[in-house]
Structures are given as structure tokens and as C-alpha cells.
């Protein structure tokens, strides 16, 4: 971990805790075993950086800091334990509830078995007690609990088959005894297994066969005689039955809980489903033909001939006796329902697969039933009007009908108009279902002509509370709106199910209006799969070719905010996308009573998950069902981002989605205490006034169009140039205001959602984009997810703990392996070490990565703050595109975004975004840079780090806000990084950390021409303009770019103020033609409005030193460059030259003069001018005469022309005379040559350890000389940063194009003496000798 520096002000023996300074990087372990190379380098350099500023001096000792850190870790662990205890507290009762429910179900089943036993023991005839045909076996009955029933059943079926003529009487006797479990019958059948298979979908095969035969003279046969069952064989003279009386009776399709068998005495002789259909031309069908193959088992102990009148029924006082009498007369097997046995006042026959013959006897019970609370015949798909109409009619005549509170006919799909009309009559009649509270007719196809009458009857009901009308065809009714209007007149209605009815936009709009009415008190509303297709927009928009898909259910969703009593809502399977998700968020985020929401199987996609999770976190919802909702949908759509809503909007207020966006923006303004006038700018029309109702809902127009730019940072934020120390804290507070802190109770409720999702990434991304998390939240998700997801969770959620450095420290410990830790740190390093007080650098970000998206959000806020500060201070716009932005060269997916500024751009959640950020606070006037001795130690530690260039860059970038540098110090740092791109990045980062911006040319001089062009493109010509030292600068500008034109106006203003000279001017027009500007640069170009709209301009700025207007240059530096500098004099500036702007002849000329005058170039000027007799200037004639006396083989060719070119270069004013000040230009070139040579020698010593080793490495051809190609290739491979070509010319004393060993050895003498002296103090032996990079 980081060791604080012991200073004189701090007592090393003290044990006080001291404040913890927020260090951007903390190692994840105390021993430092997992620390990366850049982290170790950061920890080593940080104390030196902090020494430069007393206010950043760390207080406290190592022990105190460790104790404070340990205390915070313990506090975080306590919060985690609290979260775990809450989980156990909340989830524990659920487990106990499940256990109690299972116990209650088991007790209920046991009670039901006892009721079934008592029923058959009480109502079966005594003479057949050993042969009672039990017609069902319960699903959960085991052999050991039901032995008597199974024994009776197993005896009945052999007897029935014998009676039908299929088996012999002796086989009956052999099967009378109950076999043991697993014992095989002699016939190869297991009667126990056969009985247990009754719960299957098909009824027993024997029960569906044909029963035919002729009765005895007494009118019936009796299978219960004491002497045993006797089979009656019908005679051959049996009368035939005409084909017209033989019909096929459908008895199949029974349910899985069938407990009764079809009647064997139907109107046509009990013909079953297995009857072979008879051709129409057959006259007679004798019963004799159906013996053996068509005879099935007897389904009752007796049956009556249907063609003879039935004997009069005996009167019975009890309902059960009436039912048994009706069953005996009709030959119907009794159904052991609790209602029939008298054990309950509830007729619960749901999913019993009852047929009409099973319900008709039940109707007889209603004559004497004193009370009927519930009737549930749902899922009995065989019931028709034949049985339901009599049942409903007798219910109406029975006084017990007034006690009925629940009627369920769900999925009785064969009911037709008569039964529905009876239901309407029951509901309408005062003597009917007056106390009905629950009505379920879902799945019944209602005739269209009866739907309105049915709804009118229900609307007038005074007690109805729960109504289920799912899949009744209500959406196909032209008057569906009137039907719903009638339904919502029922003031007592609490639950309404309209699922699986396809409604249009008009009906949905009506539902939304009805639900929000004050007299409606719905608590539950189900609209699953009700949305039909449509088009988005107004009628005119819907007829256009650009019409977009429209969700009619959206019209209803925005009205839900006014449904104050709603507690449950089901809108699943309605094809809702991210637009519907935002409408739900807008409507339900502040709902007072809604606790459960089902949005399953809607294609919200990963973008819709953001809205749903935000809504779930801030609302009172306790359950959110979102099965198969986040996996399907558009992952690259344009979603509204609540946490970052800046951008340009064009809204059509006739659409619910756009109205919701407007309301969300107004809520955002209210949360940040902004007025709409402050946030809404560039409006297409007058901004209307927005008011709130009593529930806090903004009232917005429902028609018209609006276009505007929304910005919430125009009037917020610190003064970027006056309060740089407040920027990090202000940014943290800003992000905390826009994000949602995840409460502990909501984190617990999200656990089931997280576990139910197959693809958990949408939920994780929603948390990463919109929430503030704690360490305990991230640890919980890591524990819930699989081991392979830990890295993904950490990478996407680590930045959500940005307000707590300790939280990030503890989250790092969650990485299970070192490889996981390194990968997370590498990909999230930029977000973890973002420096808001110095954000300038080149960014390349993946918008799909949450950590990169977080960086873009922060930079947009900083950009807007700086724009606001510049506007308040009256600074001119120096942005690239004239949009006041600090962002340059932005490219999204390789193309420039189609927006005015990145601040006005709706950020996508995918793709690659690249841009240059050039902004941030400038150094205060008179700021102190790092002391030279500290810098040398700092530089030594950097060299010892053995880090690569990008690792060094990461460490230095994180340290940049802690200290300032001089241009010379920055130049040395640049020399320690051998990668060209890393060097450019480092200069970009430290450009606004320079304490002497007027000397920046010292640092710029070391860049090559290509690197300088890259820097100019990234920083911009106005921010990187050489305001103080523009001499010899080659300016290339593009008239189509705003800041290029502004830089030209500055150049022209200087040109006119100083009387300078623009050499080598060139103007290329928009059409590609070239103008040499023979008459000079137009003076009108000093005005921005008079500049051409397009084209390119290039020129070199030349001015005599005595004509420099330093005051004007300082003014431009302050007003245009926004730098704060003290009052400067000529001698305060370290005038410098760049070798790339100087010809090789000038360098060789300087070498000649330096060798002759031993560095005193002023003496050379006096010799040329005439010592004591000169006029203070050198004419061309004097210069030529002097040069003729110089002897050097490098000027052998074209000697006169080359010396004239040198003279013209020195004559900056082109007056034909070189003054002493102009001659001093050679001093600046010599200073740069000396420094370049020193840096080269230092580099060779650091990299190779000596000149001899470097010579052997570079001299590959073994010819004893170094060519220029070998020289350039060797320096490039070694990573040297400097003017390679110019240095080659200096070392090549003979000018023959090669460097000999003797010339190479001269590097250590002359110019390199100073470098060797400086390096001796740095202990060269301690430097690592790195062979190559």
C-alpha cells in the first residue's frame, strides 16, 4: 500500500489516525502482491508529487492510516452482515409459508380420502359390499391407504367383463381375492395398476365400448344377485334398430382428474364412442352383431331400459338422497364431490372433466340445498347448454341462489347462447345472483349480440367485485368501447380480467380513461395479450410511408398514474418495447399502492430493462415479473437516458412515448432545482407553462410538436477556472444527484429477478448505468452469479462505487484469481483513475462497456461546466465546430455524429467513440512548479520502474492533478517514454499543467514534424497556437473549421500589430486552384466575417526580435487561450528554436562558428560587422565576404547560394540587413542543438550503458561507418525521441553522409559535457540496461 512521506511537520512517533487522502489507486492487498506495475510506480511517485503542494501534504502516520482503513473495512463488513440478516429475515418467512402450505395441502388430501371412503360406505347397497364398482382412484392414493377401495374395484371389473360375456365365471372367482402388490394375475393383467391409470387423460378403454343387449322380462338385469353374476345372452330374434336411431355419442376428451364415467343409458341405447359408424344405406343393425367385440363392462350395478317409463322417484328430504336417486335412475356413476356428500356448501368441480350426464343429477340437489356459496365448474370442456341451462334455471328458482357469491364457468367452451342468456338473466334478476361477488366466464365464446347486454347487466350489479372476461371475444365487437363503459359503471368492482381480447387504440384509450375515473376502485387489472397492431402518430402520420409500429396499449399505460387504488397489474404479452417501458416508468414510479406488476414476455430488450429497474427501485413495487422480457428486443435502439438526458429533442406530443419523455425531463429539472426556462433552450416555439396536479404529475399538452435542446448543466457547476479544487467533489455530487442509490430493501427484492433471468447482462447493465451501489451489493451479485460472471460483474459495476474509494478497494478483493484481477484493472483503469481537474487527453471508448460510458458521462458534464464558465467570463468561442465545446475530432463508429455538439448528443449504448478532450482549469498565475531536486528524484524513480511506456503513462496521468511542471521538466519526462503515441498522450495530458506556458516551445522543439502535426490536430490551432513565440512557425489552416479561422484572425492581428512578414504564403481555394498571393495576404482576413468559407492557407510567420509586441501576445494568450500569466518581460521568456524549422546549412554554419569562437556567437557578429567600426548590422555583402573566408568541406558545392539562403533566413524583416537581435536567433538554435546532443548522450548511457555498445548494436554492416538509414533505424528501435536527422548532420563532421567511429565517439565531448555531469549525479550504474523495448 501507499506509504506516506515523513516530513518535518509530522511526528513519526505519533499515533494519531489522520485523514485519509482520496488516492485514485489502492492496491487490493496489504502485501502488494497483486499490485500492477503502474500501481507500484504510482505509489512510488505520489509522495514526491505531494511534496510540491503543502495543502496536499498527507497527515498522520502509517499506523494511523492503516487503522483508519481497517475501521472502514470493518464498517463495510458490518453493512454486508446487515444485508445478509435482512435477506434471511425477508426470505425466511417465505420458506416457512411454503412449508405450512404443503402441510395444509397434505391434510386436505387426507381429509378428502376419508370423505370418499365414508361416501361409498354410506350409500352403496349392502348386498354388494364386496363388489362395489368404484369409478375412480384419486391421484395421490397409495396402495397401503386405499386397499379396501382397490379391492372392491379389482373385484368389480372381472365381474363386469364376465357379465358382458368376455370372461368365464370361474375367472371371476380366481380374481376375487386381492393380489399382493407386484403379484402378476393369471390373465396377465394387474387390476391395481389398471385402477391407478384412471387419472390419465383417456378414460378406461372398457368404459367407452358399446353396451348392447336385451333386458329380462322384469325390465332390467341385475348383476347383484346373491348366486353370482349371470350373463344374459340376447336372442337372435332381437328387434333391430334403424340407422336413424343409431348415432355416434362423443364421450372422449376427458380431463386428467376424471372421477366419473359416462352414462350407459343415453337416449339411443348407451352407444359409446367406439361404435363403428353405420352406413346410411344399412336398414337394420342387429344387436347380436355387437357381442364379444363391442360389449364393454357394466358401468353401474343396474340400469333401466330407456324405452320404458321410469318408476316414480321416491321423495327424499336430503339433497344427497335426491342426487343418488337421480344417479340410480339414470344409471350414472355418482361423483364424490364435497358438495354432493354434504361436506361443503361449495360446488368445487374444477377440472374434473364432467360431462352433461354428471351435472344433470346435481341440478336436482338445488331444490333443497339451503345454501350455495360457490359454484366452480371451470375447465370442464364437455359441458354444454344441455346440462348448464337446467342447472342455471333451477338455481334461479332456488332461494339458495341468493347466497351464491362465486360462479366460475372458466373454459367451458361448449356453452352457447342459451346458457349465456341464462347467466344474463341470473345477473339481472333481483331474485337471481344478487350477492354474487366473483364471476369467471373466461374462455367462453360470447356471441357478439349478447356482449353489450351482458356488460350492461354486470355494470348494474351492486355487489360484484371480481370479474373475469378473458378470451371472450370482446375485442372483435364493434361496440367494445360501450361494453367497457358499461362494465366500469359497477362501483363495487375490485378486480377485472380482460386478457386475450385484442383491443385497438381507441379501446385502450377508453380503458385508461375509465380506470382513472374517481368512482372506479379497481385493485387488480389484467390485460395480458390484448394489444393489437397499429401505427404511431396522428392520422396524417399513420397514412404516411414513414409510419412506425405503434403499441395501442401505450395509450392506456400513461393513465395508470391516476389509478390510485390499483395494487396488481398484468400487461404481459402485449408486444411492449422500450417505449412502453419508459411510459411505465413515468406512470408508476410514484404510484402509491401498486405492489405487483407482470410484464413478462414483452420484447423490452436490454434498453427497456433500464426503465423497468429504475421504476422498480423508486416505486412501491414488491414483485416484478419479467420472464423472457429482457432477452428479446432491440439492443441498439435510441433509448431515453434518465441519468443523462442532455440532447436535442423533437417531440410529437400526440404520442404517449413523447409525452412521457417531456414529463421525465420536467421531473429531472425538479430534482435538480432547475426551472424549465433554464434547461429548455433553442425551442421551436414559446415554451408552455407546465403545472403539477395534486399527485405531482406534470400536465403536458396532448397535441402539437416541440423541438428544443435540453441541458441541465448550464446554470450548475463550479467555476472551472477559479475553483479547480472543487471540480472532483462537484462532479461526484452531480453524479450522485443523477443516479439512484439502491436501497437495501430493493436490493433484496431484486434477488428473485436476478436469479430468474437466463441472461443476466441486461439487469447488470441497468444497474451500472443508473444506480449507485455499495460493496455489499456487488458482493451479493457475485455470490448469486456463477464464477465465470464475477469478472463481468466487477468490470461493469466497479465504477458505481466511485464515491467511495474504500468500496473499490474491497471490490477488488472479490476477484477469484490474479488473472481476473489484472483483466478487470486493465479494462477499468481509465474509469477508476479519471481526473476531473485535468481531463485533457485522447479517448477511445466502447460505449457498450459501462465503465467507458461512465467516463463519457463525466466528460460531458465537465465540458458543459467549462462552457458555462467561459460564457460567464466573456471568453470567445475557441471550439473546433463553433459549439463552445472542449471536445474535438469526435468519431462514432468511424463517422462524425450528426449533432452540433457531443453535449447535445443522445449517447448510444453501443459502438466505439473516439475524441480529444482539450479543456480543464489552467494553472493559477504564479504557481510554483515541482522543485528541481524533487523532480530529479521523481525522474529517477520513473526510470527505475521497469514499466512499459503505457504503464508509465497511466501512472503519470493519475498523478497529473497533484503537481505542475516547467516546460523543461516536461521535455525530460517525454524523453523517458519511447513510444511515439504515448509521448503525444503525455504532452496532451500535461499541457494544462505547465507553469510556464510562455516557454512551451522548449518542449515542442523535441517533437518531430509528424508528431507536431498530430498534436496540432488534437489540441487545435487556437489552444496550441504559439502565442508568445510564433517566430519561424509554419501555420497551416483550414477555412472550413471554426477554430482554424479564429487562429488565422489572431495571426493576422499579430502580423499587422508587429509589422511581421508572412513568408511562403499559399492559398488553395475550395475548387482546388492555388493562389500564390503575389500581392500579399489580404488585410481583410483579420476580420472573421471576411474569411473565405472554405479552402486552405499556409504561411510562415517571421518577425524581427526588436518588433515583438509582447503585450499583444500576452493579451491573446489570456483572452483566446484562457491562460492566466503574470506580467512578463522579454528576459523572462526563454526564447527557443525548433530544429525542424531550421535548414541543415544553418546548423552546419552554427557548428563552424561554435568551433571558431568557442560558443561566443556575438563575437562572430562583431567580427562580421566590423569590431568597433560597425553600424550594428550585417549587410549581405559583409556576410558574403566573411563566409568566403570560412573553410569547410560541407559547403563546397553551391557555396554562395547556400550562404545567401542563410542570410535571408536571418533577415526576418527582409530589409537586407541583419541586426544583433536577429543574429541572436542563432543562439536559440545552438541552445536546442546542445540540448538535443545532451539528451542523445543521456539516452545512449541509459539504454546501452556506453557509446561502444551502442556502436556495435547499430553498425550492422560491419563496414566501420554508420549510414543515415542505420542511424535512424537504430534510434527508432531503441525508442529515441528527438531530431534524428539534424543530430546526424551535426555528428557527420565531414558531410560525406556517413558517421565514422571517431565522429561517433565525439558525442561525449563538446555539447555532451553538461549531460555527463548531470547524469553522474543520478548514479548511472543504477539504471537498468534494457536491450530493447
Automatic annotation (TrEMBL):
<dbReference type="InterPro" id="IPR032675">
    <property type="entry name" value="LRR_dom_sf"/>
</dbReference>
<feature type="domain" description="EF-hand">
    <location>
        <begin position="1156"/>
        <end position="1193"/>
    </location>
</feature>
<dbReference type="GO" id="GO:0005509">
    <property type="term" value="F:calcium ion binding"/>
</dbReference>
<dbReference type="InterPro" id="IPR011992">
    <property type="entry name" value="EF-hand-dom_pair"/>
</dbReference>
<feature type="domain" description="EF-hand">
    <location>
        <begin position="1284"/>
        <end position="1314"/>
    </location>
</feature>
<protein>
    <recommendedName>
        <fullName>EF-hand domain-containing protein</fullName>
    </recommendedName>
</protein>
<feature type="compositionally biased region" description="Basic and acidic residues">
    <location>
        <begin position="195"/>
        <end position="220"/>
    </location>
</feature>
<dbReference type="Pfam" id="PF13202">
    <property type="entry name" value="EF-hand_5"/>
</dbReference>
<dbReference type="Pfam" id="PF13516">
    <property type="entry name" value="LRR_6"/>
</dbReference>
<dbReference type="InterPro" id="IPR001611">
    <property type="entry name" value="Leu-rich_rpt"/>
</dbReference>
<keyword id="KW-0677">Repeat</keyword>
<dbReference type="InterPro" id="IPR052201">
    <property type="entry name" value="LRR-containing_regulator"/>
</dbReference>
<dbReference type="InterPro" id="IPR002048">
    <property type="entry name" value="EF_hand_dom"/>
</dbReference>
<feature type="region of interest" description="Disordered">
    <location>
        <begin position="167"/>
        <end position="220"/>
    </location>
</feature>
Amino acid at each position: 500500500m501507499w506509504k506516506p512521506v515523513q516530513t518535518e511537520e509530522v511526528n513519526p512517533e505519533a499515533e494519531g489516525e489522520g485523514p485519509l487522502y482520496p488516492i485514485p489507486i489502492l492496491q487490493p492487498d496489504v502485501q502488494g502482491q497483486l499490485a500492477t506495475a503502474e500501481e507500484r510506480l504510482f505509489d512510488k511517485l505520489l509522495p514526491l508529487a505531494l511534496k510540491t503542494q503543502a495543502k496536499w501534504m498527507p497527515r498522520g502516520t502509517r499506523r494511523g492510516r492503516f487503522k483508519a482503513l481497517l475501521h472502514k473495512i470493518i464498517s463495510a463488513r458490518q453493512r454486508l452482515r446487515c444485508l445478509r440478516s435482512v435477506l434471511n429475515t425477508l426470505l425466511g418467512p417465505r420458506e416457512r409459508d411454503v412449508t405450512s402450505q404443503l402441510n395444509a395441502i397434505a391434510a386436505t388430501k387426507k381429509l378428502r380420502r376419508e370423505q370418499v371412503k365414508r361416501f361409498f360406505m354410506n350409500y352403496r347397497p349392502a348386498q354388494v359390499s364386496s363388489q362395489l364398482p368404484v369409478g375412480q382412484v384419486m391421484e395421490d392414493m397409495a396402495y397401503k391407504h386405499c386397499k379396501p377401495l382397490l379391492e372392491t374395484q379389482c373385484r368389480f371389473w372381472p365381474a363386469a367383463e364376465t357379465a358382458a360375456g368376455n370372461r368365464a365365471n370361474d375367472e371371476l372367482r380366481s380374481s376375487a381375492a386381492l393380489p399382493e402388490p407386484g403379484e402378476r394375475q393369471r390373465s396377465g393383467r394387474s387390476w391395481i395398476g389398471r385402477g391407478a391409470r384412471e387419472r390419465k387423460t383417456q378414460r378406461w378403454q372398457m368404459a367407452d365400448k358399446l353396451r348392447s343387449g336385451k333386458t329380462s322380462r322384469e325390465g332390467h338385469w341385475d348383476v347383484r344377485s346373491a348366486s353370482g353374476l349371470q350373463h344374459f345372452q340376447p336372442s337372435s330374434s332381437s328387434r333391430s334398430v334403424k340407422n336413424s336411431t343409431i348415432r355416434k355419442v362423443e364421450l372422449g376428451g376427458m380431463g386428467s382428474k376424471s372421477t366419473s364415467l359416462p352414462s350407459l343409458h343415453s337416449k339411443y341405447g348407451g352407444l359409446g364412442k367406439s361404435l363403428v359408424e353405420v352406413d346410411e344405406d344399412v336398414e337394420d343393425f342387429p344387436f347380436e352383431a355387437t357381442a364379444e367385440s363391442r360389449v364393454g363392462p357394466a358401468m353401474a350395478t343396474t340400469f333401466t331400459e330407456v324405452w320404458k317409463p321410469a318408476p316414480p322417484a321416491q321423495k327424499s328430504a336430503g339433497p344427497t338422497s335426491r342426487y343418488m336417486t337421480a344417479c340410480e335412475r339414470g344409471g350414472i356413476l355418482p361423483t364424490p364431490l364435497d358438495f354432493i356428500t354434504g361436506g361443503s356448501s361449495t360446488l368445487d368441480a374444477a377440472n374434473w372433466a364432467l360431462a352433461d350426464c354428471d351435472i344433470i343429477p346435481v341440478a336436482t340437489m338445488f331444490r333443497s340445498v339451503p345454501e350455495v356459496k360457490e359454484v366452480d365448474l371451470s375447465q370442464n370442456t364437455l359441458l354444454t347448454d344441455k346440462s348448464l341451462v337446467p342447472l342455471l334455471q333451477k338455481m334461479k328458482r332456488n332461494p339458495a341462489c341468493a347466497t351464491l357469491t362465486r360462479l366460475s364457468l372458466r373454459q367451458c367452451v361448449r356453452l352457447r347462447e342459451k346458457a349465456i342468456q341464462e347467466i344474463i338473466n341470473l345477473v339481472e334478476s333481483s331474485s337471481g345472483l344478487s350477492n354474487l361477488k366473483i364471476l369467471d366466464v373466461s374462455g367462453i365464446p360470447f356471441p357478439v349480440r349478447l356482449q353489450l347486454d351482458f356488460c350492461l347487466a354486470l355494470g348494474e350489479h351492486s355487489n360484484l367485485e371480481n370479474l373475469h372476461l378473458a378470451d371472450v371475444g370482446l375485442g372483435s365487437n364493434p361496440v367494445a368501447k360501450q361494453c367497457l363503459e358499461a362494465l366500469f359503471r359497477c362501483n363495487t368492482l375490485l378486480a377485472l380480467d380482460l386478457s386475450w381480447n385484442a383491443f385497438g387504440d381507441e379501446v385502450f384509450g377508453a380503458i385508461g380513461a375509465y380506470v382513472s375515473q374517481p368512482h372506479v376502485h379497481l385493485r387488480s387489472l389484467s390485460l395480458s395479450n390484448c394489444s393489437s397492431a397499429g401505427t404511431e402518430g396522428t392520422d396524417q402520420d399513420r397514412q404516411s410511408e414513414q409510419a412506425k409500429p405503434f403499441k395501442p396499449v401505450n395509450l392506456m399505460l400513461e393513465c395508470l398514474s391516476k389509478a390510485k387504488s390499483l395494487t396488481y397489474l398484468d400487461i404481459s404479452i402485449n408486444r411492449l418495447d422500450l417505449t412502453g417501458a419508459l411510459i411505465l416508468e413515468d406512470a408508476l414510479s410514484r404510484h402509491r399502492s401498486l405492489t405487483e406488476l407482470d410484464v413478462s414476455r414483452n420484447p423490452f430488450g436490454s434498453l427497456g430493462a433500464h426503465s423497468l429497474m429504475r421504476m422498480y427501485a423508486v416505486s412501491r413495487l414488491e414483485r416484478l415479473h419479467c420472464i423472457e422480457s429482457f432477452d428479446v428486443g432491440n439492443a441498439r435502439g435510441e433509448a431515453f437516458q434518465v441519468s443523462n438526458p442532455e440532447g436535442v429533442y423533437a417531440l410529437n406530443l400526440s404520442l404517449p412515448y413523447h409525452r412521457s419523455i417531456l414529463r421525465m425531463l420536467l421531473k429531472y429539472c425538479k430534482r435538480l432545482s432547475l426551472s424549465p426556462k433554464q434547461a429548455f433552450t433553442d425551442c421551436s416555439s414559446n415554451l408552455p407553462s407546465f403545472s403539477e396536479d395534486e399527485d405531482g404529475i406534470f400536465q403536458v399538452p396532448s397535441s402539437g410538436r416541440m423541438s428544443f435542446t435540453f441541458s441541465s448543466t448550464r446554470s450548475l457547476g463550479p467555476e472551472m477556472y477559479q475553483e479547480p479544487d472543487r471540480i472532483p467533489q462537484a462532479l461526484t455530487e452531480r453524479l450522485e444527484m443523477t443516479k439512484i442509490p439502491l436501497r437495501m430493501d430493493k436490493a433484496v427484492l431484486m434477488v428473485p429477478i436476478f436469479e430468474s433471468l437466463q441472461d443476466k447482462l441486461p439487469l447488470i447493465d441497468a444497474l451500472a448505468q443508473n444506480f449507485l451501489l455499495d460493496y455489499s451489493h456487488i458482493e451479493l451479485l457475485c455470490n448469486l452469479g456463477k464464477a465465470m460472471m464475477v469478472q463481468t460483474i466487477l468490470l461493469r459495476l466497479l465504477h458505481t462505487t466511485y464515491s467511495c474509494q474504500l468500496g473499490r478497494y474491497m471490490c477488488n478483493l472479490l476477484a477469484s484469481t490474479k488473472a481476473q484481477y489484472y483483466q478487470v484493472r486493465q479494462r477499468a483503469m481509465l474509469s477508476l483513475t479519471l481526473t476531473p481537474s485535468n481531463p485533457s487527453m485522447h479517448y477511445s471508448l466502447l460505449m457498450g462497456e459501462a465503465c467507458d460510458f461512465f467516463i463519457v458521462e463525466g466528460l460531458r458534464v465537465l465540458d458543459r461546466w467549462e462552457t458555462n464558465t467561459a460564457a460567464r467570463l466573456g471568453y470567445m468561442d475557441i471550439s473546433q465546430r463553433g459549439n463552445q465545446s472542449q471536445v474535438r475530432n469526435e468519431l462514432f463508429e468511424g463517422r462524425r455524429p450528426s449533432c452540433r455538439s457531443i453535449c447535445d448528443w443522445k449517447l448510444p449504448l453501443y459502438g466505439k467513440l473516439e475524441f480529444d478532450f482539450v479543456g480543464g482549469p489552467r494553472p493559477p498565475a504564479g504557481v510554483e512548479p515541482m522543485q528541481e531536486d524533487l523532480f530529479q528524484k521523481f525522474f529517477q524513480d520513473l526510470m527505475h520502474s521497469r514499466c512499459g511506456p503505457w504503464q508509465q503513462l497511466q501512472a503519470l496521468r493519475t498523478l497529473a492533478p497533484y503537481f505542475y511542471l516547467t516546460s523543461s521538466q516536461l521535455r525530460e519526462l517525454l524523453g523517458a517514454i519511447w513510444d511515439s503515441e504515448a509521448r503525444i498522450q503525455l504532452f496532451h495530458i500535461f499541457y494544462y499543467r505547465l507553469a510556464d506556458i510562455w516557454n512551451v516551445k522548449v518542449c515542442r522543439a523535441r517533437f518531430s514534424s509528424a508528431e507536431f502535426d498530430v498534436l496540432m490536430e488534437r489540441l487545435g490551432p487556437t489552444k496550441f497556437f504559439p502565442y508568445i513565440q510564433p517566430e519561424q512557425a509554419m501555420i497551416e489552416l483550414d477555412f472550413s473549421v471554426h477554430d482554424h479561422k479564429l487562429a488565422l484572425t489572431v495571426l493576422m492581428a499579430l502580423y499587422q500589430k508587429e509589422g511581421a512578414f508572412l513568408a511562403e504564403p499559399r492559398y488553395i481555394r475550395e475548387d482546388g486552384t492555388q493562389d500564390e498571393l503575389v500581392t500579399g495576404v489580404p488585410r481583410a482576413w483579420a476580420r472573421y466575417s471576411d474569411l473565405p468559407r472554405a479552402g486552405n492557407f499556409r504561411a510562415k510567420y517571421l518577425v524581427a526580435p526588436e518588433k515583438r509586441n509582447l503585450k499583444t501576445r500576452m493579451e491573446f494568450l489570456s483572452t483566446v487561450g484562457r491562460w492566466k500569466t503574470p506580467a512578463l518581460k522579454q528576459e523572462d521568456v526563454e526564447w527557443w528554436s525548433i530544429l525542424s524549422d531550421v535548414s541543415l546549412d544553418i546548423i552546419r554554419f552554427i557548428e563552424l562558428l561554435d568551433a571558431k569562437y568557442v560558443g561566443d556567437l556575438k563575437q562572430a557578429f562583431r567580427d562580421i560587422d566590423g569590431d568597433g567600426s560597425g553600424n550594428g548590422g550585417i549587410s549581405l555583402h559583409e556576410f558574403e565576404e566573411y563566409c568566403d573566408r570560412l573553410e569547410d568541406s560541407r559547403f563546397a558545392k553551391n557555396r554562395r547560394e547556400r550562404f545567401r539562403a542563410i542570410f535571408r533566413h536571418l533577415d526576418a524583416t527582409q530589409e537586407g540587413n541583419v541586426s544583433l537581435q536577429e543574429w541572436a536567433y542563432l543562439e536559440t538554435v545552438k541552445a536546442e542543438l546542445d540540448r538535443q546532443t545532451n539528451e542523445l548522450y543521456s539516452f545512449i548511457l541509459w539504454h546501452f550503458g556506453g557509446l561502444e555498445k551502442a556502436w556495435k548494436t547499430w553498425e550492422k554492416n560491419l563496414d566501420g561507418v554508420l549510414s543515415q538509414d542505420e542511424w535512424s533505424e537504430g534510434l527508432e528501435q531503441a525508442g529515441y525521441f528527438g531530431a534524428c536527422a539534424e543530430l546526424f548532420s551535426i555528428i557527420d563532421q565531414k558531410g560525406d553522409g556517413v558517421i565514422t567511429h571517431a565522429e561517433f565517439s565525439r558525442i561525449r565531448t563538446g555539447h555532451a559535457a553538461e549531460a555527463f555531469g548531470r547524469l553522474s549525479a543520478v548514479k548511472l550504474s543504477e539504471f537498468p540496461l534494457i536491450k530493447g523495448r
